[in-house]
UniProtKB/TrEMBL annotation:
Species for this entry: Cryobacterium tepidiphilum
Family: Belongs to the class-I pyridoxal-phosphate-dependent aminotransferase family.
Cofactors (names): pyridoxal 5'-phosphate
Pfam family, one: Aminotran_1_2
SUPFAM superfamilies, per the entry: PLP-dependent transferases
Known partners and oligomeric status: Homodimer.
GO molecular function terms listed in the Swiss-Prot or TrEMBL record: pyridoxal phosphate binding; transaminase activity
Name this protein carries in UniProt: PLP-dependent aminotransferase family protein
Keywords per UniProt: Aminotransferase, Pyridoxal phosphate, Transferase
Residues passing through the membrane, by range: none
Highest taxon of source: Bacteria
Domain Aminotransferase class I/classII large: 61-402
Amino acid sequence: MTKQGPPQVGNNLDPWYDHYSERAGGLRASEVRALFAVASRPEVVSLAGGMPFVSALPQDLVINAMDRVMVEQGATALQYGSGQGVPLLREQILEVMALEGIQANADDVVVTTGSQHALELVSKLFLDPGDVVLSEGPSYVTALVIFKSYQAEVEHVPMDEHGLIPQALREHIARLKAAGKTMKFLYTIPSFHNPAGVTLSWERRLEILEIARSNNILVLEDNPYGLLYFDHPAPDAMRSVERDGVIYLGTFSKTLAPGFRVGWALAPHAIREKLVLANEAAVLSPSSFTQLVISQYLATADWKGQINTFRGVYEERKNAMLSALGEHLPGLSWTNPNGGFYVWLTLPEQLDSKAMLPRAVKELVAYTPGTAFFADGDGRQNMRLSFCYPTPENIRVGVRRLATVIRGELDLLDTFAGTGIRSTADTSRRFGAPPPDIS
Ligand SMILES: Cc1ncc(COP(=O)(O)O)c(C=O)c1O
């Protein structure tokens, strides 16, 4: 018998390095995370994060709800609960979804620890290594992280200002079918998209549902921002017209507060059963305490009025961002969201948003580079600007600083034009015409 050497013991940084599952390889910190630590310094205007402005929520509304829960149902609130969620809250969630045209049964609602956890559970139920998830390009960064962690391949389908392009979806599906790929679901954020800020038109919602139906592909409709519209509501949810082929995800994170960590999935009946089992396996039950507080809040506070307040706050901030962009970066293109938190900006083609970020942070402004929102490294010419958290005044300051950085970059390129150091910067094309779509 040959003598065995000592077992492999990882590496210097992590002695357990070689113990991890293959799946864990998909869990990567964002490349720009370290910079964001710097960007959270108070002197930096961050247009990077997606934090709701919870200070617009009067604290006494929450304190009253918490008090009543503890006085009236303290023992239940502090106990484990059902893996599916508090029954009364599930009924109340039906009222919330009815605002976007959804008729459903509380029995098909599963309360989760934020909609992020619902994304995780759906992925766990459906994705095997090598499966394909179709998604808009760009798409929500932390959904992409989950899909990758289940070793799925993400296929981005382009959008324009009306959202996902149905013809492009058809073409991608045909190509993937021809390549023998298994497509499990289409992940979509139809209303006030993160990060693109666009909204899928009603006609396209119907067309995309038809494409999914005829190709036997589930639709995973993620809708955290739908109620946060500005001028007019978004079209009704896709789930409002398709019961069997859609898993719908909702959350209280943006219309109330993310600290509660309460979201939900509304699923076709058979899937709902599996989701409850997966939820129990993961967390036993979602927090009884926060579910009851939200239930109390919905029963006693003017929650629709509060959502109107949030809409007003975000609309004012969006207007501040768009007018500052118009003033300081004329000629660049960006989306004009009618709700939600985000603007998607397109840079002149010779600029790289990821390479430029350290210089921006040095100028005391932060954004999220477009590359974060693609699974395939695309998006260098784009950035996401969030208007949800900074005040309108800070947004104006941030955009002014950003313009300084962009001009500085272009000047640098001009200086080195023709030296071969980087692509030739042609001043006549500076802030040139936008490309036709935002993919
Ligand atoms: C598109 C999208 N889906 C899901 C989430 C997760 O939200 P939650 O706080 O409900 O987990 C977010 C949060 O930013 C989001 O933007």
